[in-house]
Amino acid sequence: MSLLIKKATIVDSKSPFNGMEMDILVERKKISQIAKNITVEAKNTIEGQRVVVSAGWMDVHAEFNDPGNEHKEDLNSGAKAAKNGGYSSVLISANTLPIIQTKAHVNYVAINNANLPIDVKSFAALSEDLKGQNFTELYDLHLAGALGFSDGSLPISNPDLIKRALLYAKSFGGKIVVYPSDKRISPKGVMHEGTSSTKLGLKADPSLSEEIMVARDLAIAEYCDAPIHFKTISSAKSVAQIKKAKKKGIQVTCDVAIANLIWNDSALEEFDSNFKVIPPLRSEADRKALIKGVNSGTIDMVVSNHQPQNIEEKQCEFDIAGFGQSSIETCFSLYQTHLSDVISFEKWVEVICENPRAIFDQELPAIQEQETANLTIVDTMLEWTVTPKSLASKSKNTPTLNTKLTGKVLDVIC
Fold first, then answer.
1. What digits encode the pLDDT tens for the residues 387-414?
2. Which one of 1, 33, 88, 275 counts the least CB within 10 Å of its CB?
3. Topology (CATH) of 56-364
């Protein structure tokens, strides 16, 4: 098989072709030639209005629900959706049924990965049965291939568990990932606490619930002198705390969900349950602070936070609707449509490709001749309309349905 990519702007900080418009020829899974004008015939050709090529992207927070809830998503549909969204690698959550907490469960993902169009790896649960009391067999799971340990969007209230897990994982280089939220402050909150929640009369989840857990876990990480990663931060004060901690030398990294960069809590005023997400959409000031955090390097990654839900769990009363968006296929287009004027494409590649691979110890693909092709190819000007038929995901719980977005993934070579 051969593929010729015409007049593509290469965005790769480690490539000698960075920032240059070149043709790229892929043959037998390798980049065989990069030149100004390649005239050979290829089986397939990609060209567009403004084609941009980078190393393959990596998403580190996506739920594929396999095994256990395959009616929402399975490994095959999730991988196809991820490829449509521009990802050549995805790290999936452990909250399946059964939970990914044994070597056999990690191996289930690894065995099925051989038949998927992209590279899918998994987290293992940080705590047994996701109950937040005792940590799992971390070292064995690490050896089995788990790239990190996380209870997903379930917070861990027990500080001793965090301390012991950090100290233990530190000995073998394991990655501890926590979702910062104190549910004792917001046991039944469904949206951000603010003017909109008051107007709508909905139970609120204040940003304080996140910020006190960020402060607590930063203190624990400093005490242990161990790295910690915060999943999907959402508040301005969390950004400020993490920025201060990094300057202090605490080993902390964090990510933000694409939804929290695009929308604020006013989006819920029409009771669209597709805006009911974890963490909740917060204030406009928080949203702007998150964008600033991405640009400053305080926030290391942007994630899809893909949480597919079937129609019965979304088309119901708002209070009982399921949390989450099906977002892995629209993440780039949302960035290009709403954020490309405030976050450069170079920064986008850094937070969607380079930093995730560095933090989770994955090799960064190179855009150079004779290297194995691992590429994301997009057209930054191509417009498309999101329809149920255009989405590979089994679940269509996205607020972008029937809307036009700018920027489309043309292909992923993996």
1. 999 999 999 999 999 999 999 999 999 9
2. 1
3. TIM Barrel (3.20.20)
